[in-house]
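re: ur question from earlier - yeah i can do the single chain one, its not a big deal. heres the input i used so u can compare w yours
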Amino acid sequence: MLSRDLVGRKTILLASFICLSIIGAPQITFAGECYVDDESEASPADPATITIKSSGGTYSELCGHTIHGSGCTVEIEEDQTFADANTDCVRIGKGVTLDFNGNDLTCTLTSSRCGYAILPNLATGSGALKVKDGVIDGCWQFGIGEVTSSGTGQTIEDITIDLDNDAPTVGCGTAGIGIVGWKNIKRVNLSDIEYGICGAITTIEDAEISDMSVAGVQACGENPTIKNAIIRDSDVGVLSADEQLTLDNVLLIDNNVNIDVDSSSDKATLKKIVAYEGADCHCTHDDTCQNSIDDCGTFSGSFVSFVDDAMR
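and the output i got, formated as tokens:
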């Protein structure tokens, strides 16, 4: 018979072994997950990567779905079309990367407009939200809709948006806004809309924006930086209200007004600005055209160039 002391020692050793095994065990990591058309998460999740393809994909088409998750990637493997008037294509929540892989999302209507091409819903999911590498075109009312919460985990990159704002000549109606309220916007090309980018923006970088009937960029609610951008052939290049705007290496070409700030107290910081001739007014504030672009901004940086000497 084992002595009580020996039993006790064995019990202590066994407990120590179990403890060390738990501490030394590798950390278990869980893969991401996607929820499609299941905002309450009542059903088991889809895998972390789902594909959109008419034949052989997880789902045959993008439009008509709501998607959220955590670490969820949606791979769009072919062009997508939609033709429902005043109807949004897809709603995406947090934790989703929507990767177009170079494909198009097109509203094919010709006598009216679809709703939003992409509409965020940040009440669902967890984690960062990203839209990347695609083209949104045709008769949408809006391109990528508003992100309504703060934070930096919201990114658009490598996206082209052309909403055929000239299409009223064929009955499509007027387009609204290309991108609304996203924090970080990189490598975008926007054309033929009322507003290119609008809302509480943090950073716009490597952008080309043209042919906006109202404004290339309308910034409000943050202190945004526009860097390495071309804004051209629009009614107003940059429209800024109640924040400290920074323009860094921005080319302004043939806009009716290049920069419009809310008042003289809301001057922009201007770095490496090139403003080409063609503007009716290079700077307005308090709804009045000013004599010089200096009235809309404070120069900061080593290089500022104007093609037309009358601009300063």
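The longest strand covers residues 203-220. not sure if urs matches, ping me
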